């Protein structure tokens, strides 16, 4: 008979040699509980640490959600501020048109004050001449004929002066365009085409009627003194009504060709080029 052979075994690893059973029954821990009982306090501590880790991860998740909400809200605010800056003009300082309007307003006030003083002096002189003194009362009847003749001549002179002044007033109100040479017309047409080429597509030919209205508005601004007008001065019914004029002016203001001012209480549109 062959002697019994011992089966070969794989050598225990270092971790296996320090197994739980060996640790529980080793001489280093003589009071250790039998079996796996000594793992209870270790597992309890491990459970506490795991719960703490879970709470920390939950806090991190809530912080991430809060940051995501804040980022979305802040991004919306920045987008709205950007759109507002692109669609709204905020004039931080007076332009050249503001100083020009202020100077013209001061001149108009000075002229109005001078006319008021002259009218007051004329009224005082007229009242003084209509009140005769005691020494001149006896000669009043002798001068009646002369006074009537003078009054008639004054009336005729006043009528003639009024008639002479009427064409000038009519010319100012209508704002008749001065005649231009062929060279000036060509230069104006080139400048007008240059302005319209920078406007939105609807003014560049997609709508011929709208392009015609835009040309009328631009020429109306150019033909006024100092190239400054009010909105009613550009209205020419029935084709060029207030709504169409306002639409053309909005396009010109957005492209910086026209400056809109309200320093005098009245909205004025000045050509900026």
From TrEMBL:
Keywords annotated in UniProt: Centromere, Chromosome, Chromosome partition, Cytoplasm, Cytoskeleton, Kinetochore, Microtubule, Nucleus
GO BP terms in the entry: mitotic sister chromatid biorientation
Polar residues: compositionally biased ranges: 130-154
Compartment(s) where it occurs, according to its Swiss-Prot or TrEMBL record: Chromosome, Centromere, Kinetochore; Cytoplasm, Cytoskeleton, Spindle; Nucleus
Sequence ranges of Basic residues compositional bias: 168-180
Residue numbers spanned by region Disordered: 124-188
GO annotation, cellular component aspect: DASH complex; mitotic spindle polar microtubule; mitotic spindle pole body
InterPro entries, sorted: DASH_Dam1
Similarity field: Belongs to the DASH complex DAM1 family.
Name of this chain's protein: DASH complex subunit DAM1
Species: Tetrapyrgos nigripes
